[in-house]
Amino acid sequence: MTLLHISASPRDALSHSRKIGQLMVDRLCAETALVVTRQDLAQTPPPFPDGRFAEASLCPEDRRTDQHRHDLEISESLIAELEAADALVIDTPMHNFTVPAVFKAWIDLVVRPNRTFRGSPAGKVGLLKDRPVVLIMASGGPIGEAPPAQSDFLTPYVRYVLATIGLTDLTTVCLDSLLRGAEAVERAETAATARLDDIAAHVSERLDRQALAARASAET
Predict the structure, then answer these.
(1) Parallel, antiparallel, or unpaired for β 87-93 and 35-40?
(2) pTM confidence score
(3) Contact 108, 53 (CB under 8 A)
(4) Is residue 89 within 8 Å of residue 134, measured between CB atoms?
(5) Mean pLDDT of the 169-177 span
(6) At the top level of CATH, which class does the domain 2-219 belong to?
């Protein structure tokens, strides 16, 4: 089974989201035999979609030219990597209340009409099979409803956009107030780390069910 680990922070060893994300990956690998695929969006940023990508993405499959297929190569590679994963861990900072630009570029390359979702009278329908996703998000300021806390547009956006392509089993871990001193950092990391065992148990149980369903399907 394969675990896709996506990181978006540009801060490398200083990143709190990367630290907790790696701990999450380690816990999952301790629970289940997983092969980890790394996608470091900060180290290898995906390109921003341009006009050629938009044209190729919207062109019906049976009318695509070789140039269209070339313009979709990176997107297809990222989608194939996503399709091959049995579970995902995404660790990312909050940038200006939402996702970093490199993570948004990844989203724009994998959320494609008639490839990872289709339209219907009831709205968009995801075309990917569901699988467990763990989102680790880090914020320098406090998050909440009352001042001086700031709004979190990242978590609901990621939940909505992943559900659009079929990924609805999302567990979130939020670390906030990370620029409020060492004590705040310790509180945030301690609270996040305390949740990892329960999350790992949930993901492991879900992976077991997926494996059983796959075996049953193969036997019929």
Answers:
(1) unpaired
(2) 0.96
(3) no
(4) yes
(5) 98
(6) alpha beta
CB distance 133 to 91 below 8 Å = no
Which tens digit of pLDDT belongs to each residue from 44-55?
999 999 999 999
From 83, 105, 96, 145, select the one nearest 8 (Cα to Cα): 105
Give the pair of three-digit tokens for residue 194: 């305390």
Structure-block tokens of residue 120:
């219907």
Hey, what are 122's tokens? 């009831």
What is the reported pLDDT for 153? 96
- Domain ranges within the chain, ordered by starting residue: 2-219
Q: What is the pLDDT of residues 90-117, one digit of tens each?
A: 999 999 999 999 999 999 999 999 999 9
User: What pLDDT shows up at residue 214?
Assistant: 81
